[in-house]
Amino acid sequence: MTDDFRQFLADILPRILSQCCRDPNSPAFGCFDRNFWHYRMRDFSSIILQQGGYTVMQIQKALPDGPLTEPFAREIAAGACRFWNRRASRHGAFEEYYPWEQGYPPLAFSSLAIAKMIASGVCAAGDVDCGLRKAARQLAARFEPKAANQQVAGLAALAWIRKISPDLVSNRNFARQKKRTLSLQTNEGWFWEYDGPDVGYLSVTIDCLWDLFDATGDADFRASADRALAFLHRVIAVPGRAPGMLNARNTDYVVPYGIARYLNDGTDIQRRLAYQLLAALYANLPSPAHFFRAVDDRYLCHYIGHSIARAIPELEKAERSAPGSAAPEAPAREAFDLPLAGYAFRPGSNGAPDLFLALKKGGCLRVCAGDATALDFGWIVKTCKKQFVSHWWSRDWSVSSADGTWTIRGLLAPHRELDSTPLKHFGLRVVSFLFGRSVIGILKNVLIFKKKKSPYTFRRTISIANGTIRIDDRIDGLTDAETVVPAPRASKRHVASADSFHPEDVSLYIFGLDIQRTMRIKGDAFVASTVFSAGH
Questions:
Q1: 62 to each of 307, 315, 317, how far by Cα in Å?
Q2: pLDDT tens figures, 197-240
Q3: Confidence band for 369, pLDDT divided at 50, 70 and 90
Q4: At 482, is the secondary structure helix, strand, or coil?
Q5: How many angstroms separate the CA atoms of 482 and 106, rounded?
Q6: Secondary structure (DSSP) of 305-374
Q7: Which pLDDT belongs to residue 220?
Q8: Fewest CB atoms less than 10 Å from the CB: which of 104, 135, 331, 358?
Q9: How far from the centroid of its chain's Cα atoms is residue 1's Cα?
Q10: ∠433-434-438 over CA atoms, to 5°?
Q11: Structure confidence at residue 449 as a pLDDT band (50, 70, 90)
Q12: What is each CA distance from 498 to 178, 248, 416, 490, 505, in whole angstroms?
């Protein structure tokens, strides 16, 4: 696995460096937003991409014999820090999507990367003093409750800024933010991400919890990461694959660094859990179908690249400490129910396929029999102006279960496709210049959270019997003006890290499962039945 990780980094390194302005005579030297410094397509630099400097520095450490020399990597990292400082010092700083945004993710993640680079000595703290002061003030005063990975990253940034410049962060402010941040973790081990669990973002959270532990030595952060690791193991290693689009925020990736840390810094049980997780996630990394192969250059610079690079020393250390050791046995394939998360898993028996359920995403599910896979994301009701979807994560779904049968009831979520026009962007820039980050909540309600309800009720019943899995669906409230179509893999919820290509985009059904479906309109109701069974 270590060799596979090294080869992957060697493959993506030229792509990452191509995102960076490498001309030391340019005022944009160290900028990782190619759309800004090279294509000139954007009149601001997306500051979250300055994590690319940290990524380059970590890749050089992971590949010391590679083409990237340490002096060059440190020069790029120092340039990234100084460019970040100039942008962070401006009015409305910490932009990601539009000018004067004052976004929380660019604030949290870029500040964390810059602070760790300063702590490693790539340049003097005085070179970025203005930006660090501004970042510290905002991180101490702001809180992101709906996307916990961002908040944990923000707290980690605050911890590293305090480590560099203790006068910038008071102990009282840090303690207050710590208490609020750790309260976002549920008793099942996951952190809230848009009303539910998301294993991709939870893996980012574990990375940042280790950053917090390293900066502070506080065992509370380690204990929080321990609980998150146990949750990841249950929903990934036990079924044998990550949930993918059954996540609350639709992420396809899981990052490795925080998991790999447990190979060396965990108990015997945690080392076993970490090994089984890494094997389930990355054993097929060389395959073109692996989820890392579909990650775009933005996210390789943004976060994923440096998590992979940081994992390699952990893998190497584990190999040196136990050379030739036998692989731990595979995890027990046991059924589980996680009511708060809305996840349920039933391993197949007597020829029946496995079943993984995301009950709070309208009953979306995955059926597996060996390598054969089928997914069902429910339905879309289409009208002339809107779409109404069932595959929408929400705590509003009513879920009940008994004796191998689950029933999900609720209202379909309304969605309208929005065009991006010059007039809208002009208005957004004016409003953001005048009112700053107060605009963000409005945009999130339009693009991410659905406040309005639909007139269509949805009921899904899922049952296991006689080696088959049966789905019975009903949508009420239809007129003659609507059409009902099966929902594709793509979700209507906007999440920047989602929508990487996956073979499931081509077909939700992979050869090897028998599938029978009937559909009909009965009065004002749409009725459908789907049966999955293991093929031959």
A1: 11, 11, 12
A2: 999 999 999 999 999 999 999 999 999 999 999 999 999 999 99
A3: confident
A4: coil
A5: 41
A6: HHHHHHHHHHHHHHHHHSTTPPPPPPPP---EEETTTTEEEE---TTPPEEEEEGGGTTEEEEEETTEEE
A7: 98
A8: 331
A9: 22
A10: 95
A11: confident
A12: 28, 11, 19, 9, 13
The count of other CB atoms within 10 Å of the CB of residue 348 is 18
With vertex at residue 327, the alpha carbon angle to CA 326 and CA 329, rounded to the nearest 5 degrees, is: 120
Q: Report in angstroms the alpha-carbon separations of 89 from 24, 50, 86, 132.
A: 21, 15, 5, 9
3-state secondary structure of 220: helix
Beta-ladder partners of 337? 344
Catalogue all structural domains in the chain, each as residue range(s) with its CATH number: 2-319 (1.50.10.10), 336-534 (no CATH)
**Tokens, residue 503:** 């073979």
477, with CB counted inside 10 A (0-12, 13-18, 19+), is middle
Locus of tokens 């990452």: 16
Tokens standing for residue 496: 């920047």
Neighbours of 323 (CB within 10 A): 7
- Res 535: pLDDT: 66
CA 325, 328, 332: angle at the middle one, nearest 5?
Answer: 175
Q: What angle do CA 357, 359, 365 make, to 5 degrees?
A: 35
Outline where DSSP puts E strands in 416-498: 457-465, 468-476, 483-486
Query: Which amino acid is residue 203, in one-letter code?
Result: S
Amino acid at 106: P
- The residue written with tokens 């002096």 in the block is 71
At residue 455, what is the residue type? P
